[in-house]
Amino acid sequence: MQGSATRRAMIFLVIWLGLPAAALAQSTHGAIVGSASDPSQAAVPGLSVTITNTGTNISRTVTTNPQGYYEALSLVPGTYLVTAELTGFAPFKRDGIVVESRITVRIDITLALGQIEGQVVEVVATTPVIETETAALSDRRTARQIEAMPMLATGTLFPFVTTMPGACRWWARREARSSRSTARGPARARSCSTA
Hints:
four-stranded mixed beta sheet, 3 helices, alpha/beta, five-stranded mixed beta sheet, Immunoglobulin-like
């Protein structure tokens, strides 16, 4: 009886300690990261990088480390403006950066030498479609796309979830007296989505 109580206590402890990690995995924030370099491709430490949400006009300023790397984490999804300034270099500006939920966007900064009064280096480019900062698989759908999907007359979103990249569905086959059944239970089948 004591072994059973110990086992329950251990299971409770594992679940209790695992809850904060599960809660952190549910973040809806994005990030902007990158590195700063001069025209000779040397790292630029101490560069002041300002990230501004153009929808709310809320700014955050970060500084590059000795390797020229910067990161702005926990950004609310939206459109951002990245500016950078350092004495001896022309100011840098890049607008229209779209940060989505749980996506890390890489914006590398290349500074031009000299600081002429009023000169700003403005980069006009689109945000990359492929996320290269993490190995995460994700899929985005609008509410209209989800509503238009056939749900196999179940009325649940389970069939939709199994179409996402990397999602697997396990089910037990009900085969009484099957040679594939083992002492541990019936044979199991697996179906995975790769697209």
